[in-house]
Amino acid sequence: MINIPRYERIWLTLGVISIVVFLFLTGFMGVSMNLNPPNNLETVDPNTVLAIPPFDTPGLRQLGPNEYEAVLISRMFSFQPSEMRIPVGSKVHFKATSPDVVHGLKIPSTNVNMMVVPGHVTEYTYTFKDPGNFLILCNEYCGTGHHLMVSRIIVE
Ligand code: CUA
Question: Looking at the predicted structure, is the pLDDT value of residue 142 above 60?
Answer without folding.
Answer: yes
